[in-house]
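ugh finaly. both done.
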Amino acid sequence: MRLSSFALPALAANLVAALPAPQEIDFDMVLAAPDPTYSEAVGVTAQTITYNSAAMVAEATASISSVSVDASDVLSATAVVQAKRAAASNVCQAQAAGATSAPTYSPDSAAQFAKESYFPSVASASAAAPSGYTQAFVNMQASSSAFSYMGFDTFDTYDVATCATRCTAKRGCVSFNIYFERDPSVNPDDSSCSNPPSVTMIKCSYWGGPVTVQNTVNVGQPRGGFEVAITGSNGYVTTQLNTPSGYQDGVAYGANAMNAPYDAQGYNTFMGSKLFTQGTWDTSLCSQYCESQTTYNLKTAPKDGTPAKVCKFFNTYILTALKADGSVVTQGQY
């Protein structure tokens, strides 16, 4: 039986650190990889993004070629992404209607929206974590920008349980964020409607990586002369981690990573690292890579009797960069 260790909460790293020791984070690889990106549709009531896990596994194992992983060998953007697109913009086109359960407020401004007591009171009353999830944060005035965006749904009521159920049903969904969002009632794309009356949407967004206080930084943005704002934002992370076939259940190490031990003969058992910047947080990517590396190493074992390195366990986590300007940027699954 092989071991696996999962560290679902993000592990932070300062990317201006000195060159790493052999088992520390491979900063050259991380810096060479593109930052994960996503695009949220506007003016619609739902957006769905799926990832082709079979293609991700194939890409992860296709480049096995040596005992030590090449630092430049980074997964490229090959995931199949399908998204519902917003309709082509028309001048002052009506946008999605808001939640009927949300109250009106006066004056109709982002500042007043942020002051309304109704929204945080509902979020607080609904804060308990549903079965299979743990609470990441409560009542923030921002939405999450985590790893691996999987789309969103809109609700008529602030329904944490339904949000959790839908996340659980989505392959690869690791966390969700539910919040109130102040949106324009019409597309503010013309001077005649640059600051229209608002609607309040209740959004449930889904993520293939963990939502955290640190990555919940989207406070809204202007659309024309209209200011989008967010409040009553709660986040939850799954406790239902899938264990790859042939491995023991993983152990959560929080914001810590492992150092591979030396074996009884004094050999360093560390076999390298890999960064996945596309797709969802998926332990099977690591297990497949581990097994493929073992297969290659056994087939190309040294002729002098030196034992081939065999992959017995792996440690995986979401790597987050704390940049010099104070911003937090998810780097991918390490």
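ok and the 2nd:
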Amino acid sequence: MLAFPNITVSILFSVARVDVTIFLFFAVVGWIGNSLIILVTVNETLVSFYTCFFVNFVFISGVDVSTVLMFFIALDRFVAAKNPHFYSTFNKRNYVVAIVALSLLYAAVFKALLYTSLTEDPTLCLIAESMTGTMTNLWFGVSTVVNLSVIGLYCALTRMIKVSFSEYQRINRSINMIILVYVFGWLATMGGCFFALRVGLK
């Protein structure tokens, strides 16, 4: 109240009601969404790998593009910190166009490769279950390597900044948070799926 002396108690309660309404809305959306996932899982609505591939086409493409973009962002930060003079000579427009083109090319190549290994066998259409065959192993393996490279680049960047600029502890904390989120995000997903496929878990 002291920070905002002009705000009355009734205004605070009005703001609290709006907050509660928003939180309840998100909770209901979460309950409905998760209930639908449970319902589909319980009913085991199975479709062919071809159908599932096309259903998840945009989402898997997004996974591929974002994975490669995260690698290039990490590489960009590493090069900028390691050799700022060389980095400043880049033509920004061509640089960005090349990164986006390589990311889209990566996604297109893996879409074509994954399509060649699809079958008419039924599957529960989740992103991790929407592919089959040897190309799935390759896709998960390459994605895991790219994700490990991102973490390696950020770890190298953290060590470099600690050695060079001790006053940048806040930047180091930010980078460490990125590494932590990345480890428990796509790396855990891709690495876990790759491991499960290699050991034959169902």
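summary for the 2nd one i guess: The chain has seven helices and two strands.
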